[in-house]
Specification:
- With about 400 residues, the chain is α/β, with parallel strands linked by helices.
- It is built from 15 helices and 16 strands.
- It has a 6-stranded mixed β-sheet.
- A hairpin with a 4-residue loop joins strand 7 and strand 8.
């Protein structure tokens, strides 16, 4: 960027900050330092910079102060901001105040009922970005809010991401472009750590493709219309929305995050003593409703276990199940203490802190011994089931 553009842009930014703090100090740039970029320029470059500064002065954006000596080639000493709006116009930019006002207009339909929108506007008003997003992204946030409205209208139903995207925007990939905005709008806090796309979309009931509810073990699933589906070996899959309850006497229930460990666990000798359920990663609302109906059919003495990856995502899934599904039932971690170190790797400080927080939210602080320092995928473990000794 040429010197004149750099200087004028800095004046604009400093003027924005001064407006925010109600400062009355003059906003200016001086070229007194002989080591500055201004004095390192050649005569031709300096003349071009002078032309640009003079044009800004003519537009009413800045005031210029020249050296008293030097004749027609006298140097420029000071460029002082005169009018913030005129400078923004001259640079082909928009002042923060104008951009924030426009963002507020765009997001106004959601302002009263969505506190996160107010938080976003407040942060922009302090001249701070939100996850790298500026007021110019307000229209994208509005599209993300339309997605949330559509998801809320079908709270217990899963919707195919690209199908919904095509219906809402005429663009089947639009929702996928807005995962960052949806993450900001639905995170625990405005500045919560970034989540994987599945952790953002699945709780909203937005899935890439229809997911069957996979179950292994014993007993029968109760379905709409009085139908009954035996849980045959090694497993059975039905639509989540078809499940109304469960009939059987499992010793335990174990939810499993990933598909390969679910398949392997379903083939173990002791699988018929309990009930194994594949979560499909982060549970969707339809999956959650089906699982709640199964648990509601079981005595409270039957414990619910969860087995997921020993990482931030795995513990977030566990927390989601604790908060929205199992209620007061005994809810315990399975194979998630990283005590079997095979394949594990050291966790960074940020991951360690977030895992510890999620462990506490899942109510597992006393049961989890070693999750904080290590990361481990389910597939790296030797599988065994509750009530059975480890091989």
């Amino acid at each position: 960027m040429a010197l004149a553009e750099e200087v004028l842009s800095r004046l604009l930014q400093r003027g924005e900050r001064a407006t925010l703090s109600s400062s009355a100090r003059a906003i200016q740039e001086r070229f007194n330092d002989a080591g500055s970029d201004y004095w390192r320029m050649g005569l031709t470059e300096r003349d071009k910079a002078h032309e640009r500064f003079l044009a800004a002065e003519k537009a009413g954006a800045v005031e210029l102060k020249w050296a008293r000596q030097g004749g027609e080639d006298r140097p420029l000493e000071v460029v002082r901001l005169r009018d913030l709006e005129k400078l923004a116009t001259f640079l082909g930019a928009q002042t923060a105040a104008s951009a924030i006002a426009r963002a507020g207009e765009i997001l106004e339909p959601w302002l009263a009922n969505t506190p996160r929108v107010h938080e976003i506007l407040e942060r922009w008003g302090a001249l701070k970005n939100v996850r790298g997003l500026t007021p110019s992204s307000a229209a994208d946030f509005a599209d993300a809010l339309r997605i949330l409205d559509a998801a809320a209208a079908s709270a217990d139903e899963d919707q195919i991401v690209r199908g919904l995207s095509a219906r809402l925007f005429g663009d089947s990939k639009r929702i996928e472009q807005l995962v960052r905005h949806l993450d900001v709008l639905t995170g625990e806090t405005l500045l919560a750590p970034v989540r994987h796309w599945d952790e953002v979309l699945s709780p909203l009931g937005l899935v890439k493709e229809p997911q069957p509810f996979l179950v292994a073990g014993a007993g029968s699933l109760q379905l709409h219309g009085g139908q009954e589906c035996p849980v045959i070996r090694p497993f059975v899959g039905v639509s989540s929305k078809a499940i109304t309850g469960y009939r059987g006497s499992p010793a335990w229930v174990l939810t499993i995050e990933n598909l390969t460990p679910f398949h392997l666990a379903s083939q173990l000798e002791g699988a018929g003593r309990g009930l194994l359920i594949y979560t499909g990663g982060m549970p969707s609302p339809a999956w959650a409703r089906a699982y709640r109906s199964i648990l509601a059919s079981l005595p409270m003495a039957v414990s619910a276990y969860h087995w997921g990856d020993v990482d931030v995502g795995g513990f977030r899934i566990a927390t989601q199940i604790r908060r929205h599904i199992v209620g007061d039932r005994s809810y315990l971690p399975w194979l998630m203490d990283a005590s079997e170190k095979r394949g594990s790797r050291e966790a960074g400080e940020g991951d360690s802190k977030e895992m510890a927080r999620q462990v506490a939210l899942a109510g597992w602080s006393s049961q989890i011994i070693h999750p904080i320092g290590f990361l481990q995928e389910q597939e790296q473990l030797t599988i065994h089931l509750p009530g059975l000794a480890s091989p």
